[in-house]
Design a protein that fits this description.
Elements (H helix, E strand, L loop, with lengths): L2 H8 L11 H9 L8 E5 L5 H10 L4 E6 L12 E5 L5 H11 L2 E6 L5 H11 L3 E9 L20 H13 L18 E7 L2 E6 L18
Parallel strand pairs: 1-2, 1-4, 2-3, 4-5
Antiparallel strand pairs: 5-7, 6-7
């Protein structure tokens, strides 16, 4: 049981609601950021418990920021935890938010879970993730739920959107430059990790890959 799980099961603070298999994924991708002077941004405050959990996990040097559409969540602010109120589907709000916050190291997207909220948030916030940082988006099972604008293989869901990002990552190798060429995501997503209900994006400056041979030729081709 990792540190996050121990905190969750012993939690006597504010309410936290998480799928249990998430904790291993969190720890796998977030552990390198612990005890560092970083900025952590979480969409979806709920009852404020997860913000307290991140504060405990990342340490006192971390700046912890929450975002929620519910104005009552502002009352959940405490020492070391900032909360902003706004609609993450609204690109103008997201642009304004990120101008105020600046660059971030870790993003946890656990907000409203509709397709526009998820896609808009990724597109507006990912550019502000520092190189070496991560953007984790969770509860992606809503991509298959009608009430969240989802559906199996339905165009416009975050899952289908993410499939196009897989293409973007491979675009350096395209032989159809008129139709398929490198994008800003080709040059900034260094990895995608896909799990049940979660995708984690690694941010880095990505350059066109190169290859070469070393050693001695021993057989004919």
């Amino acid at each position: 049981m990792n540190t996050l799980e121990k905190y969750f099961y012993k939690n006597k603070g504010k309410l936290i609601h998480k799928w249990l298999h998430y904790f291993a994924i969190y720890d796998r991708h977030f552990a390198p950021f612990r005890k560092r002077r970083i900025t952590v941004l979480e969409f979806g405050v709920f009852q404020g418990g997860s913000l307290q959990m991140w504060r405990h996990y990342f340490g006192r040097r971390a700046r912890i920021i929450g975002v929620d559409i519910n104005p009552k969540c502002k009352t959940l602010e405490e020492k070391g935890i900032e909360i902003y109120i706004g609609d993450q589907e609204n690109r103008a709000f997201l642009k304004s938010l990120m101008r105020k916050i600046g660059e971030v190291d870790v993003v946890i997207e656990d907000g409203g879970h509709t397709m526009k909220q998820q896609i808009n948030t990724f597109e507006e916030v990912f550019p502000y993730v520092k190189n070496g940082g991560v953007f984790l988006i969770e509860d992606l099972h809503t991509s298959y739920w009608k009430e969240y604008q989802g559906g199996y293989k339905k165009s416009g869901t975050f899952i289908e959107y993410a499939k196009s990002l897989i293409d973007d990552i491979q675009a350096w190798h395209s032989k159809q430059p008129a139709r398929f060429k490198p994008t800003k995501y080709t040059k900034s997503i260094s990895g995608m990790h896909v799990y049940d209900s979660i995708i984690v994006f690694d941010k880095a400056e990505v350059v066109k890959p190169s290859h070469k041979m070393t050693g001695n030729k021993t057989i004919g081709w």
